[in-house]
Amino acid sequence: MSRADPSHIAGSAYDSDPGQAAVALAYQRFEPRAYLRNNYAPPRGDLSSPDGVGPWKLRCLAQTFATGEVFGRTLIDVGSGPTIYQLLSACAHFEDITMTDFLEVNRQELGLWLREEPGAFDWSVYSQHVCLIEGKGESWQEKERQLRARVKRVLPIDVHQPQPLGSGSLAPLPADALISAFCLEAVSPDLISFQRALHHITTLLRPGGHLLLIGALEESWYLAGEARLAVVPMCEEEVRKALVISGYEVRDLCTYIMPAHLRTGVDDVKGIFFAWAQKKVGVEV
C-alpha cells in the first residue's frame, strides 16, 4: 500500500477544515519502514500463493497493461508513498514517469531505491513476480533498470489542493495516464473529501487518458509505526460512483476479500479494489 500526506500543515485550505488538518497532523508521525514491514514483508509480502493480496494487485496491473490500451509518453503516480511495485508493469509503456508524495520521508525512501543506495527496501521479489506474470522472458534486473531509467522525477503533491502539483509543475501536463494506490481514501476524512481529491487529480490527466486506482475497502484505520491513521471506509459502489462523478468511464472494477490469515492487526481492512477508468473526452473536470 502507498500512502501520501494530505496537506500542508499551515497556510493552506486545511486551516479552515478541521478534518483535513487532523489528518495532516497525524501523518507527521508516519514511519515508512514500519509501513513497508506491515504490508510488503511476509505474510502480506509473501508472493508464493496466487491467492495472496500481493499477487492479486500485481496481476490486476499486468493484465490491464497487457490489453495494449493503456500507454503513452507520460505517467504520474499519485501518492507513491514509499513503494514502487505499482509501476513495475507500467514502466514498459511510458517513457516519462513522475512519482509523487507529500511526505519528505517517503520521497527519501523512494530515492534510496531509485539510486540503488545501501539500505533501500528490496523489491526484487516483486520484480521477479511481475516478470513471471508478464512472461516476456525479461529478467527482474532488466525490469528494475527500466523503471529506474524512466522515473524522471519525484515531486511533492497535495491531492486536496486544486493544483495538486502546485503551479509551474516540473511534471509534463496533462499526463497520458495516472496510477494511484492506497492514497485518496487514506488521506480523506470523509467521502466528500475523497470525491474532491479525485476531482483534483483528474485535472492532471488528459481527456481520453487512463486512471488505474487501487485502494482499501471498508477500512477505518491502519498503523505505520507509532502513527495510527484514519481511513474513510468505502464500498465498491461508492468507488464506482465517485469515478463516474469525476467524468470517467469505468472500464473495469474488481475486488479482493482480505483472507483471515492476512488480517494481521496492522489495520482493519476488509478488502481491496482495483479500478481501470478512462477520462471521457469533452467532459469539463
From TrEMBL:
Keywords: Methyltransferase, S-adenosyl-L-methionine, Transferase
Listed InterPro entries: NNMT_TEMT_trans, SAM-dep_methyltransferase, SAM-dependent_MTases_sf
Keyword RNA-binding: no
Keyword S-adenosyl-L-methionine set for record: yes
Superkingdom of origin: Eukaryota
A Pfam family assignment: NNMT_PNMT_TEMT
GO biological-process terms attached to the record: methylation
Residues holding S-adenosyl-L-methionine: Y35, Y40, G79, S80, Y85, D101, N106, D158, V159
Listed GO CC annotations: cytosol
Molecular functions per Gene Ontology: phenylethanolamine N-methyltransferase activity
Sequence similarity: Belongs to the class I-like SAM-binding methyltransferase superfamily. NNMT/PNMT/TEMT family.
Protein name: Phenylethanolamine N-methyltransferase
Gene that specifies this protein: Pnmt
